[in-house]
Input
Amino acid sequence: MRGPVILFIIAVLLLIGAVLICRPSEWSYSIPAMGATATVTVVGTPLDAATGRLKGAADAACAEIRRCEELMSIFRGESDIGRLNRSRPGDEVEVDPRTHEVLAMAIEASRRTGGAFNICVLPAEERWGFKKGARRAPPTPGRTHVPPCDGSTLVLEREGRRCFAGLRLHGVRIDLGGIAPGYAADRAADLLRERGVKGALVDVGGECRCLGGAADGGPWRVAVRHPRRDGVLATLQLSDRAVATSGDYEDYFIEKGRRYSHIFDPRTGSPAESGVASATVVADSCAEADALSTAMLVMGVDAALTLARGLSNVECLLAAGEGEPAVSSSPGMNNYIARER
Output
């Protein structure tokens, strides 16, 4: 009987091994990018990992995020945006199709938000000491005029496969920090899908795009940071959706008891003072969620909720005030908030 028993044990061990090697797991890869950390988490089996398929897909996604940064960073002199910001009115600057696409998205986001989202804020940001490493402080009285983000300021052209951008006014310089991270997450997620990855979470500095579900078969769980203390404001459950959060706690200084954040109100040329401490948006694309969350922090609670109600497939979660903030949300946001057991 010893032989059959041994064969049975071997069969059981082989079965267990087959189950384990085919059981979905999560594999994460991180890189520094866009002033933060970008993390690509992919779902696959140990067999997928052993063949190198998962790492190959994740490496390609990380490379795409890096490429978006190279093209759109204001801190790289030879990036598309660096060259555009140095150009003179009337110049045509050839840019990568990805940069061209983000600029077009920014114009559309500005239109949809009534100008609350505006990429032409860089001179105003620098006047307050943001973006250039200077001491951050309220400037001398006065304001920096922020021109509208539309065709009167920015011109986009195509000639076959070549793309061009130009500025129409003197003194205009742009900053894509409110949309480029979300766009990079979208590009990385789309590339993963093209490579056959069914489940993934791409996180670029907190702007997240989800593909499918997590390894346990359920949705991805994304925590929204509490804007005024350590901990979590809410946990979202997402599949095939994107989420982005803008907060006045991410980069700020306090002067005479007042908080001044890196998110600027284009109407005043100064840090936003709407009372919104954080704005989280769930949308179809991360670029859209990124831009809308920035705009909603500028707009204030009532205007942000009105905007969300007027947009399809867009939901928002807003925290306003100091101390323990008041939380407001669009009706459909409750579908994504996890109820802790």
Q: What stands out?
A: Residues 2-22 form the longest helix (21 residues).
